[in-house]
Amino acid sequence: MQGNKASQEGKDVDISDAGNPMPSVSPEDLPHCPRCQKGLLRPGVVWFGEALPVKTMSAVDKFVEKADIDLMIVIGTSAMVWPAAQYIEVARGRGARVAVINMDTQDGERNLTKRDWFFHGDA
Fold this sequence. Notes:
By secondary structure, the protein is α/β, with parallel strands linked by helices. It has helices spanning 5-8, 54-66, 86-93, 105-108, and strands at 71-75, 97-102, 117-120. The protein has a 3-stranded parallel β-sheet. It starts with a helix and ends with a strand.
């Protein structure tokens, strides 16, 4: 991601650092619905406060109940919000080791065991 071109030309910019300026983006430059060309496309994410899709949660539940899990990778989350947070303990209970990648060491190192890993930084 590039920041202010005048001061950041050709350099990688850490967008998680509030001190780095972010360029303005006009709505016309954002991706639009290919059918109607009016609405903006939504990224495939669940925003804070939104419910996770029931079908997705059901599929994950079935997977963690039956699958052999040797590693769970947790990226960029505090792992405090349920129901997703429970999957770390479920996987660990099935023998998995946990690898956490997070910019925030307080969030990332919470509830790790001696068998787990923590990587501080950007994923």
